[in-house]
């Protein structure tokens, strides 16, 4: 659907300004919700603007539907941008137009529909985003969440194939963020719109995205399905972003005896009483050092860091794996005594989900 | 002071002369200054049609005109005024220098008003496939409307001020009357009445400008 190939971007290449993006290769599949996460200044805003050519790459190519669009100009460019909706952190609504007027705006610019057709479409769009009763209000009379719904309705007006969300929830409170993310997922599901979302919050990625790329100083440092990246982050930047979302510092296990393992339960397994049964069967004891439970999109997960002592440790680990639990060694007793096939950090454990 | 010595019909004539000078010059100033202001805005730094050289030249010329005190501009422009309107006297003779004097000022106000528009709105407009021209006329100008109305109001008041000055070179109007009778003939009461009428006029312009601004601003 969207393919970025060997993209570099520098804002003043002649004056030798350091590039903002270095050799980015990314592809986003049709119908996917793709997240791009990074700290501010990582280059994610620039990256997302390459897709609708609000920014031009210094080198590299941009493809949409296998069509090279890097040099699109004039009418071709305007047509392309109409097929890519964009939602902004600060909504960027026209303050002088009503809610209905804002949603009608892109349709008026496109100039293909009659006034009556535009009115009908605006009504339908406002109903979709739950703002049917607010059509005649002005943006300043709306709450942040409502303004973003107007922004989303406006972005959908020209039936785009792609929706770009530039920190679409960063100006919203947590509850409203949830509602806006639900709305975006609904749109993705029902209209099949491919969504590219940039954010600095891992929580947004966990709740809404299928795949994620982690951007750090203009480079993609980690990329993959959200479950893999979120549950088994391999790059320090990703780990920091995950910890930030969990509101927790790094695990200190220095003085704790036993084998330190991280167990990850996903899908149906997350709710099965596996741990106690295996502890009884293999005579092992465990202490929970840390853990988190929750959902990645709609899928439950549970992840515990434990220290394993006594009994048949190897047997217990094998039984856990047999039960579909991903096991990683994170410290404690020597990793050499473990059977092969158990990943040790920082290697990525891949057989999750 | 003897107010019965005031020739009220004279005041009425002078007021109507002032009003016609201000209104005709205001319309022409907007017609000339608005495109110039838009040009300044779009050729300015960081804008869709940024042209540093063109912006620099235009900016320089406008600054030169703005640097010349209006009373001197009136005199300097006299030969050109005669060429264009056939006379340098009366309402006809004064409108040209008034427009030359206020257009650069108005153009600057327009540029500032357009720069006040949220850059995010411009970006949103471009992102939804608007051409730069559509963006300026259908997003930037409507969003800047309250600022533009405020600019017209300020310019109208400056024009009232300038018409009084143009009285000195035979332009007519309230300023002319105040100087001829109030100053040269020591009829202070006429000067007083003229000043009061000018004060009322300026208050009226400002008040109606303000109410239009608040009517159109929905931020």
TrEMBL record, chain A:
Pfam assignment, any one: NIL
InterPro entries (UniProt xref): AAA+_ATPase (IPR003593), ABC_transporter-like_ATP-bd (IPR003439), ABC_transporter-like_CS (IPR017871), ACT-like_dom_sf (IPR045865), MetN_ABC (IPR041701), MetN_ABC_transporter-like (IPR050086), NIL_domain (IPR018449), P-loop_NTPase (IPR027417)
Entry-linked SMART domains: AAA, NIL
PROSITE patterns: ABC_TRANSPORTER_1, ABC_TRANSPORTER_2
Lineage top rank: taxon: Bacteria
Family according to the record: Belongs to the ABC transporter superfamily.
Annotated protein name in UniProt: Cell division ATP-binding protein FtsE
Lineage, uppermost ranks: Bacteria, Pseudomonadati, Pseudomonadota, Alphaproteobacteria, Rhodobacterales
Gene: metN_1
TrEMBL record, chain B:
Cell location: Cell membrane
BP terms from Gene Ontology: D-methionine transmembrane transport
Boundaries of every ABC transmembrane type-1 domain copy: 15-206
Entries under Pfam families matching the protein: BPD_transp_1
GO cellular component terms attached to this protein's record: plasma membrane
InterPro entries given in the database record: AA_ABC_Transporter_Permease (IPR051322), MetI-like (IPR000515), MetI-like_sf (IPR035906)
CDD domains registered for this protein in UniProt: TM_PBP2
UniProt entry tagged with the keyword Membrane: yes
TM region(s), chain numbering: 20-41, 53-77, 89-109, 147-169, 190-209
Bilayer topology: Multi-pass membrane protein
Keywords assigned: Cell membrane, Membrane, Transmembrane, Transmembrane helix, Transport
Family listed: Belongs to the binding-protein-dependent transport system permease family. CysTW subfamily.
Protein's UniProt name: Methionine import system permease protein MetP
């Amino acid at each position: 659907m969207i393919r970025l190939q060997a993209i570099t971007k520098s804002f003043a290449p002649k004056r030798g300004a350091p590039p903002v993006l270095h050799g980015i290769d990314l592809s986003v599949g049709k119908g996917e919700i793709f997240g791009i996460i990074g700290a501010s200044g990582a280059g994610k805003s620039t990256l997302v603007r390459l897709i609708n050519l609000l920014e031009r790459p210094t080198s590299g190519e941009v493809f949409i539907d296998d069509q090279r669009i890097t040099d699109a100009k004039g009418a071709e460019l305007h047509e392309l941008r109409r097929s890519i909706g964009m939602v902004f952190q600060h909504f960027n609504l026209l303050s002088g137009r009503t809610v209905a007027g804002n949603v009608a705006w892109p349709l008026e610019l496109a100039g293909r529909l009659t006034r009556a057709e535009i009115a009908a479409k605006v009504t339908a769009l406002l109903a979709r985003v739950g703002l049917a009763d607010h059509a005649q209000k002005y943006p300043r009379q709306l709450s942040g969440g409502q303004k973003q719904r107007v922004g989303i309705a406006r972005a959908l007006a020209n039936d785009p194939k792609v929706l770009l969300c530039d920190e679409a929830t960063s100006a919203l409170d947590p509850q409203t963020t949830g509602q806006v993310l639900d709305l975006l997922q609904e749109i993705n599901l029902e209209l099949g719109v491919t969504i590219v979302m940039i954010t600095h919050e891992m929580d947004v990625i966990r709740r809404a995205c299928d795949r994620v790329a982690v951007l750090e100083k203009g480079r993609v440092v980690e990329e993959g399905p959200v479950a893999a990246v979120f549950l088994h982050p391999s790059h320090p930047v990703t780990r920091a972003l995950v910890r930030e979302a969990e509101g927790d510092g790094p695990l200190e296990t220095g003085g704790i005896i036993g084998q330190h393992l991280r167990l990850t339960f996903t899908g149906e397994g997350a709710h099965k009483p596996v741990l106690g049964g295996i502890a009884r069967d293999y005579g092992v004891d465990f202490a929970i050092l840390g853990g988190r439970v929750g959902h990645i999109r709609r899928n439950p997960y549970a992840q515990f860091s434990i220290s394993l002592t006594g009994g048949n440790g190897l047997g217990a680990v094998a039984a856990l794996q047999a039960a579909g639990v991903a096991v990683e060694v994170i410290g404690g007793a020597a990793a050499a005594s473990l059977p092969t096939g158990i990943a040790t950090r920082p290697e990525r454990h891949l057989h999750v989900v | 002071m003897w107010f019965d010595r005031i020739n009220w019909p004279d005041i009425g004539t002078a007021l109507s002369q002032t009003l016609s000078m201000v209104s005709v010059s205001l319309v022409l100033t907007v017609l000339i200054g608005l495109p110039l202001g838009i040009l300044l805005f779009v050729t300015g730094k960081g804008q869709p049609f940024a042209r540093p050289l063109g912006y620099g030249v235009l900016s320089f010329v406008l600054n030169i005109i703005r640097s010349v005190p209006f009373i001197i501009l009136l005199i300097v422009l006299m030969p050109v005024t005669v060429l264009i309107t056939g006379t340098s006297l009366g309402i006809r003779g004064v409108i040209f220098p008034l427009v030359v004097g206020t257009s650069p000022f108005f153009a600057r106000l327009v540029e500032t008003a357009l720069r006040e528009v949220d850059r995010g709105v411009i970006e949103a407009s471009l992102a939804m496939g608007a051409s730069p021209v559509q963006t300026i006329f259908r997003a930037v100008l409507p969003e800047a409307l309250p600022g533009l109305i405020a600019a017209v109001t300020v310019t109208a008041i400056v024009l009232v001020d300038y018409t009084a000055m143009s009285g000195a070179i035979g332009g007519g109007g309230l300023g002319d009357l105040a100087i001829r009778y109030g100053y040269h003939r020591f009829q202070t009461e006429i000067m007083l009445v003229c000043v009061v009428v000018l004060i009322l006029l300026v208050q009226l312009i400002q008040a109606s400008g303000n109410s239009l601004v608040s009517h159109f601003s929905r931020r």
